[in-house]
Every structure is written in C-alpha cells, then in structure tokens.
Amino acid sequence: MNRRTEERPAPRPAVAPQRIVKAETILVSIPFESGGTPPWSFGGSPRLQFDTLFVRLETEDGIVGWGEAFSRGEDKSLAALIETRVLPLVIGRNAFEISKIKFDLEFQLQNFGRIGPIVYGISAVDIALWDIMGKLTGVPLSTLLGGAFAGEVEVYASLMRYGNCADVVKATRQAIERGYRYIKLHEITENEIRASVEAAGSDALVMLDTNCPWSVAEALRYDELLKPLNLYWLEEPVWPPENYVGLARVKATGRHRIAAGENAGSLHDFVAMIEANAIDIAQPDVAKTGGVSELLKIAALCDAKGIEFVPHCAIFGPGQVATIHLSAAQRQLPLLERLYCDFEAELYRGETTPKRGKVRVPAGPGLGLDPALDVIDRYRVK
Ligand SMILES: [Mg+2]
C-alpha cells in the first residue's frame, strides 16, 4: 500500500453546500410611458403597466438570488402556480447543483407542459441559482459563463405596436435621437412599416416583428411586398409559432433573414427549427425557455449550426440582467432587445437603462445588480 496516499488528508470541498431555505414569488407592476398611443395588448387588454414576476431564493447563509418568470397582465394565477408547484421542490436543495435541480424540476413536472407557465417558473429558478452561484464565488455571471467579450452590449429599440404612421414615425426618430442604431417594429400593416423605414433613412437599420399573424400564404405575400424595404430581419411571420415547416417556406424565398424562438420551450425546439431550416436567427427567452442553463445549450447549438444567437428580451427584471451577461459572454455579441418605453420607476435605479444605445455589463458578483426594494414595495401586486 502506498503510504503517501494513506497519509494524505481527506479533500475538503472548496465551498460548503448551501441549502435553499426560502423560495417565493414577488409580482410587481409599473406604469410606463410608451411614446405614443399603442393598442398594445398585454394578455388581452391594452395596458400601460408592465409586470415583473420575480422568484426570490434565499440560502441558509442568507444569500439571496433573484430570478424572473415571463409575465403579463398582473397574472396572480401564474405567480400562484409557480409558488405552489415549482418552488416547494427547490427547498432544501444545494444551490450549487444548478443543472441537477433544473433537470429534477423538468422531469418531475413534465406532465404540466414543456412550454409555458411551469417552464417560466423553472427558468426563474435557474436564473436565481446562477445569481447565488456568482454571489457565493464572488464573480459576475458573465465570468462564470467563460468571460465577457465586451464591457457593454448594443441595444435595439423594440418599439410598441402603434398602428398609425404618425406615432411610429415619431418613435422611430426619437429612438434614433437617443442613440439607437437598430429599431424593431411590431407593426403588421404596410403603411406603418414603410413610414418607419423611410423615417429611419440611413440612421438606423430596421427589423420587423409581426408576432405570428399570418398564414403561410399571407406571410409569403408580405415577404414579397416588403422585400424592397431591406429589413434587417423578419420575425415570426407565420401562425402558429411552432409551424416550422411553414416558416421554412418563407425563409426559402431568400428575401428576408428569418428570426424566431421566443415561443420555444427548450433546446429541442431549436433543434427542430434548425432541422426544418426555418430560421437564420434564434431568439430564446431566458425567462421562458429554461433560464441561463438552457440558453447556454442553445447558444452552443447555434454556434455549431451557423445560426445567429440573439436572445429575445421583452422584460426588465433579473431576466434582462441575465440576458446582458449571456450576451456579453458570446464571442459574436448579439444585439440586446429592449422594449421602447419609459418607466415611472426603474427596478435597477437606471443601471440597465441604455445610454446612447448601449448598456453596461454589471461588474458585481452574480447578476451584479439587485432590484430596488423600495420600488418593489411601492409597485407590488398583492
Ligand atoms: Mg418577438
């Protein structure tokens, strides 16, 4: 027997396990100014309030991790579902075991859906666990992901759907004056789209997100009609979002680069999209598609398949902060989406608000930013 091995002290873990002792949802709704009069629908009714559905995890040593689930329309039922079905399964788990916890939640809850509210809750847990990991190890999320390739990320102004030329032109010019070089429209009629492209001129590139309004035949008609406008990309032209074969028919014309993915539930939806040759640009949402962990897998798939990875981000809480870190950690830096609106109060005291069309990558441990508790208190939905 080797004496030297015998005498070696037993290895000690560098960091002791950290049990999750508390898990809760916090729903916040903050009024915003849209820069026009958008008939913009948040879950059925036109609203000028924006929701953030936090998941807050706390470890036995009092380390707090913040996550976010996609939410619209003061959805207390969504918060309750996550609170009662997802979060109890996290209590007592070792916060370091991110992949293991995520797999167990997905496996145990698979009968409740692989896309939708349950997955939004799992996504939020994953984001919060990465925040805790960064705080426990003292490094920013972008460093945990392999290192930031840049200190700031370029943001595109994702305009509301105004449905009239005057407002869409006004918002286009205002966004350009604020320093944005990329503008995304949510219009679905030709006049508004053309008016914005003409108003942008050579000051900004314009892309179009239609949110799945058309049959394949209708989408093909618009694909031809809009070709002269040289849109930077065309997003979700076909209903329903999982109609990858239909989407592939639009992509096959070669007239537009096709973007989609915000309605996907996991890596495997992107495998199917790419196998169908349906997309040029993959848009997973960190708060809908399985959190930071799942987006890392999707980014690797895109890298291997030559697809652009440009996460969807129409939220303003920890999901947005996580998306900034994820974007910064890509060698080919994706543009960061930001819905174009001004809030009555900022969850991060303005730290995530773009300046001249760019946002800084937070340098603190974990997400690097914690939400303002006084803002949460003021706007909390009870
Ligand atoms: Mg979209």
Describe this structure in words.
The chain folds into two domains: 20-141, 2-Layer Sandwich (Enolase-like, domain 1), CATH 3.30.390.10; 143-368, Enolase-like C-terminal domain (TIM Barrel), CATH 3.20.20. It is α/β, with parallel strands linked by helices. α3 packs antiparallel against α4 and α11 (291-305) runs parallel beside α12 (318-328). The chain has helices at 3-7, 76-86, 98-108, 117-137, 141-144, 165-177, 190-200, 216-226, 244-251, 267-275, 291-305, 318-328, 373-379, and strands spanning 20-33, 41-42, 45-46, 49-59, 64-69, 152-158, 182-185, 205-209, 234-235, 258-260, 281-282, 308-309, 336-339, 342-343, 358-360. α8 (216-226) links the parallel β8 and β9 (234-235). The strands form three sheets. Strands 6, 7, 8, 9, 10, 11, 12, 13 and 15 form a nine-stranded mixed sheet that branches. The chain has a four-stranded antiparallel sheet with strand order 5-4-1-14. Strands 2-3 form a two-stranded antiparallel sheet. 47% of the residues are buried. The protein is globular. The structure holds magnesium ion. The site of magnesium ion (MG) has 6 residues, from loops. The site of magnesium ion has 6 residues, from loops.
List the main descriptive attributes of the protein structure presented here.
382 residues, alpha/beta, Enolase-like, domain 1, TIM Barrel, nine-stranded mixed beta sheet, four-stranded antiparallel beta sheet, 18% strand, binds magnesium ion
Brief synopsis:
Its cofactor is Mg(2+). This protein is α/β, with parallel strands linked by helices and 382 residues long. It has helices at 3-7, 76-86, 98-108, 117-137, 141-144, 165-177, 190-200, 216-226, 244-251, 267-275, 291-305, 318-328, 373-379; strands at 20-33, 41-42, 45-46, 49-59, 64-69, 152-158, 182-185, 205-209, 234-235, 258-260, 281-282, 308-309, 336-339, 342-343, 358-360.
